[in-house]
Predict the 3D structure of the following.
Amino acid sequence: MNGKELSGHIVAAFAKLEASEEELRELDAVVGDGDLGVTIRESSRAIRSSLGQLDPGISPREVLVLTGKTISVANPSTFAALVSIAIAKATKLLNEDSEISSSTLLQFAESAAGALSHAGKSGIGDKTILDALVPSVTAGHEAHATGTDVLNAMTVAAREGIEATKTLSSRKGRAAWAGDRSIGQADAGATAYLRFLEALSSTITTTRNA
């Protein structure tokens, strides 16, 4: 996948992700101020604006760097800040190759997970985005596949990770203040990641079948 193709998939995926604004707002409102829906909406619109018209020769690394920077300025939320930090750190392992493989994207996601864990001082079981992200990366590696097959494996694992933590109480950030109110609810950040995977898989499949 070249940079232009990657940017097109990201733009289309964020456009689909924006449809989850209300769902994410409601989930976030259970344990916080409900601003995640706004963060996703503003990030989606900013991504479509900044990545919508790029030079055809742009590298995948440049696309991901721009994605992280765009999210960081689109909305001043903690979630946006953590995600942008994770993307910025993960892009450091990428070179300026004109093409990027599924394997490299998995390495990128794995590095981003490590950066999120460090920045948020969180881990598996704390009921954060990591409970969907980490299992999805593991599943992606174990799938030994490419393209949408990898994304499908990642999506299933992310969904299972979210379900597994519904019975837990949130332990990090503003959500931790909610105590037992978070029990029985899916984590909003993890759900946002799941919806992005679903949207990305859908847009890549649509493009290839066109």
In short: Residues 188-209 form the longest helix (22 residues). The mean pLDDT is 89.
